[in-house]
Specification:
Blueprint: E1 3-7, H1 10-18, E2 23-27, E3 45-46, E4 49-53, E5 59-61, E6 72-76, E7 79-81, H2 90-93, E8 98-100, E9 103-105, E10 109-111, E11 136-146, H3 152-157, H4 177-191, E12 201-211
Length: 221
């Protein structure tokens, strides 16, 4: 079992904590012209994994970017510390904690997704150290498909709400143009204009949350 970091935006962190996000899609770094538009595993796949021809004609496998089933991911998100720690780099923060009952307690971490960070210096998610992460995920399934192969419930598992049909106690339950547009817009916001239209090959990672703060009061499961 291996563990790796993974970045999520504030809305996606909230969706994970709410239990509505159980899947993420991330671009495969190689481009595969042979992948069919409907996402069927034809062309450069063997047992579900993509490959390409190496410089000497050998098969080069694309390793799963975030791991395989059973591996774990720890979430990096936008965060803050109390103001008197603002000039302390992340690598040194752990050593700045206080001693309580014979053990070192790390500085308090304020999470931008669920806490008030007004007046605080926000730190980039990429700089969040492992010990400051509050969410662990276990990978349940990994496969590769074209981005446009996503369907209604795949978008729901991505934690996306329908801007037109969702309401308290109900939601659209079939293929919906508004829901699909919401996901496509979010994809373009992250990966750049036109990235949805390019229909890239993506890793589809299904996961379950193992631990995490589930309320602004800091109470966990």
């Amino acid at each position: 079992m291996k563990e790796r970091p993974i970045l999520f935006s504030a809305p996606m962190v909230r969706a994970i904590l709410a239990g509505t996000k159980t899947e993420t899609r991330r671009p495969v770094t190689w481009h595969f012209d042979e992948i069919t538009d409907d996402g069927d595993p034809h062309g450069p796949y063997v047992d579900g994994w993509p490959w390409r021809e190496g410089p000497d004609g050998e098969d080069v496998w694309a390793p799963p970017r975030f791991g395989v089933p059973g591996d774990r991911l720890w979430v990096r998100e936008t965060w803050c510390t109390e103001p008197h720690f603002d000039l302390v780099p992340p690598r040194a923060l752990l050593g700045m904690g206080m001693w309580e009952n014979g053990r070192k307690v790390p500085p308090r971490i304020i999470y931008a997704a669920t806490e008030d960070t007004s007046g605080l210096r926000k730190r980039s998610s990429i700089h969040m150290p492992r010990w400051a992460s509050r969410i662990d995920l276990e990978i349940e399934c990994v496969h590769v498909e074209r981005l446009h192969a996503i369907r209604c419930w795949g978008i729901r598992r991505e934690g996306i709400d329908c801007p037109e049909h969702d309401f308290p106690g109900g939601m659209c339950t079939s293929e919906c143009t508004y829901l699909r547009y919401a996901f496509a817009s979010g994809w373009n916001n992250i990966y750049g204009r036109g990235s949805w239209d390019s229909n890239p090959a993506v890793w589809v990672v299904t996961f379950r949350r193992m631990r995490g703060i589930v309320s602004e009061t800091g109470e966990g499961p």
